[in-house]
Amino acid sequence: MKNIILYTFALTLMVSCQKKENITQSADAPENIISLTEAQYRNAALQTSEAELRNLTSTLRVNGLIDVPPQNMVSVSMPLGGYLKSTRLLPGMHIVKGEVIATLEDQQYINLQQDYLSTRAKLVYAEREFERQRDLNKSQASSDKVFQLAQADYENLRIALSALSEKLKLISINPSKLSEKNISKSVHIYAPISGFVSKVNVNIGKYVNPTDVLFELVNPEDIHLNLKVFEKDVTSLAVGQKLFTFTNSQPNKKHPCEIILISKDLSTEDHTVEVHCHFNDYDKTLLPGMYMNAEIELKNNQVPAIPEAAVVNYEGKDYVFLMKDKLHYVLQPIAIAVQSEGYISITQPELLEGQKIVVKGAYTLLMQMKNKTEEE
After folding, report:
1. Nearest to residue 189, comparing CAs of 310, 80, 273?
2. Alpha-carbon distance 200 to 101, whole Å?
């Protein structure tokens, strides 16, 4: 009887240990492995392949503003100051080089013209006196001192007339056409470039100083795109590289551009570099200061790549199935680095090295795994 009790106790203990072992094995079984039956394998029609080296093209997305080079933006001022008599300019108005954009008047314009004409008249007399004293000096009829004084007066008046001539040119008065009959209290300001008016800083009757900017004019035919590119991406760019840019309001209207300059100055605030691009075709709808998006194609070196069909998305994450054997597959999480032309590369290519990857039927395996999880 005692032996029977001991045998029963030992048998119960052994069964209990086996159940505990089975429970432990079930709990420790990896959830990312799926097993198929022969029938399931045949129905799935799976295809596997190793990662292959391919040249993939990635797209760098950045943004920036339309800018104007300094030579295409002009600040108009009046070197001698004056009162604004008239102007028709408004911001956004188109202008043509050489047309009158404003008229100013001031007494100093009259004084300047008067000084020029008086000096010119004096110069005529001084020139004749200089020539007369020169002839007298040659014949010893005049002293050297008198001749030298006449020469100095003549040279001083020539210098004064030349200086007054340049001052007249500053206020757009042609000295060669000036006479006592056409002295004017008004002067015109002419457009130095063709383009449009960016800013108007004055009004009729206002006195402007020589340092005041009356108007700002822009020639938009040579506008360029100023992009902000993070330092980690700058090494992928080069002068001459092509890109496309577009506005938020018209994302389907792409404007082709080309990189013409990459700045060497790194911003300490956001660690970006300015990249200047030239528009291949001028578009009048693009204005300075306009916000733009840009897409730059980057050609990478050969990287291990797999077809897009090999990647499955589950609960917001990307995975591929790696083949252990014909009936067993491992769900491997990945992070996509580049996606182009139907292929992808991942950030950790060593995970796929030497592995057989399911390139056809991956979603079939995912459904099998989800169904198994729901049943459990």
Report:
1. 80
2. 11
CA distance 142 to 131: 12
Task: Give the full edge-to-edge strand order of the sheet including 100-105.
Answer: 186-190, 100-105, 82-87, 207-208
| Tokens read off for 246 | 């577009």
Q: What span, in angstroms and rounded, lies between the C-alpha atoms of 146 and 134? A: 9
Show Cβ contacts of residue 268 under 8 Å, excluding neighbours closer than 6 positions.
none
pLDDT (tens digit per residue) in 281-337: 878 788 888 999 999 887 666 788 899 989 998 888 899 999 999 889 999 999 887
The whole-model pTM stands at 0.58
Element (H, E) at 171: none
> Burial, 120: exposed, middle or buried (Cβ in 10 Å; 0-12, 13-18, 19+)?
middle
What are the distances in angstroms from CA 178 to CA 53, 100, 154, 220?
A: 79, 19, 21, 36
